TrEMBL record:
The keyword Ribosomal protein does not apply. It comes from Leyella lascolaii. Belongs to the nitroreductase family. Keywords: Oxidoreductase. The keyword Calcium does not apply. This is Nitroreductase family protein. Residues 17-234 form the Putative nitroreductase TM1586 domain. InterPro entries: Nitroreductase-like, TM1586_NiRdase. GO terms for molecular function: oxidoreductase activity.
C-alpha cells in the first residue's frame, strides 16, 4: 500500500493532523443535531477521493437513527448516533487494512472539523436501503460520527519499547511515528501491532509493520489505522513500507 499525500482541504483546517491524533478519543454519545452543511461537503469530497485511491465503497449516512438503536447498540452505549460512515469494499485479503488506513483519514479529518467519532465493529445494525453494495462487496464496520456530548477520555497505552525496535541508533522520526501509532484507536484498546526499522535501501528508509494475534480479531484493520498514524508522526520522511 502506497503512502498517501494529504488532500488540499487539509490546508484550510486550523487543527493539524498531529493535534487531531492527540485530541481524538472514541465518543459514543452525541448531541441530537445534524451535521453542518460545509462539514458534510468536506466529508463527502474526501470520501470520494479515498474511495478511488483505496478502491473502497465508503458511504456517509446522515440523519438515520436505526443503525444504533438495536440490542447490540444499547450494549455499546450509543446515544443519538444518527450519522455514520458505512465502511465497505470488495472482498480481498487486504480489505481490512485498507478500511483501517483510509477510514482513519476520515476519522482525523472529522476531528479537525469539530466532530467526534467511534469505530464500531459489532454493535450496529445494517438498515436496509441506507447503503449500496456492489457485487462482491461487504461491510467491514461502521464509523459513528457527530458532535459529541463530550470529547471522550484517554486510555492506558503500551510503551514505545513494547511495540518496536527503537534504539539510540534508529532515526528520531521512527520513534515519533511509533508514538503517534500508539495513540491510534484499536479494538478494545488491544494494540496488537509492532513496527521495525529495517534500514536503508536505494536512499529510502525501510519500515516493517506487523499485526499480532488476537482472539478478538480486527488486528488487520487496527494495523491499517496505526500505519496512517505512524506516517503522520514520522513526518515528511522518505521511507517505504515493507
Amino acid at each position: 500500500m502506497e503512502r498517501k499525500k494529504e488532500p488540499d482541504n487539509q490546508r484550510r483546517q486550523t487543527m493539524t493532523l498531529q493535534e487531531a491524533i492527540e485530541a481524538r478519543h472514541s465518543v459514543r454519545a452525541y448531541k441530537n443535531e445534524p451535521l453542518a452543511g460545509d462539514v458534510v461537503k468536506a466529508l463527502e469530497e474526501e470520501i470520494a477521493v479515498l474511495n478511488r485511491e483505496g478502491k473502497l465503497h465508503m458511504q456517509l449516512i446522515l440523519n438515520e437513527p436505526k443503525a444504533f438503536q438495536g440490542t447490540l447498540a444499547k450494549y455499546g452505549k450509543f446515544r443519538n448516533a444518527n450519522n455514520y460512515i458505512v465502511m465497505a469494499g470488495k472482498k480481498a485479503e487486504d480489505l481490512d487494512e485498507r478500511i483501517g488506513y483510509y477510514g482513519e483519514h476520515l476519522v482525523l479529518l472529522a476531528q479537525t472539523l469539530g466532530l467526534n467519532t467511534c469505530w464500531v465493529g459489532l454493535s450496529y445494525s445494517k438498515v436496509p436501503g441506507t447503503y449500496v453494495l456492489d457485487e462482491g462487496e461487504k461491510i467491514a464496520c461502521y464509523i459513528a460520527i457527530g458532535y459529541g456530548e463530550t470529547q471522550g477520555v484517554s486510555h492506558k497505552i503500551k510503551t514505545v519499547e513494547q511495540v518496536c525496535n527503537a534504539s539510540d541508533i534508529t532515526p528520531s522520526w521512527f520513534k515519533k511515528g511509533v508514538e503517534a501509532a500508539l495513540l491510534a484507536p484499536t479494538a478494545v484498546n488491544q494494540q496488537k501491532f509492532s513496527f521495525e526499522y529495517v534500514g536503508m535501501s536505494n536512499n529510502h528508509h525501510q519500515v516493517r509493520a506487523k499485526k499480532g494475534f488476537s482472539m478478538i480479531g480486527y488486528t488487520q484493520m487496527d494495523l491499517g489505522i496505526a500505519k496512517y498514524h505512524f506516517e503522520i508522526g514520522a513526518g515528511k520522511v522518505n521511507f517505504d513500507w515493507l
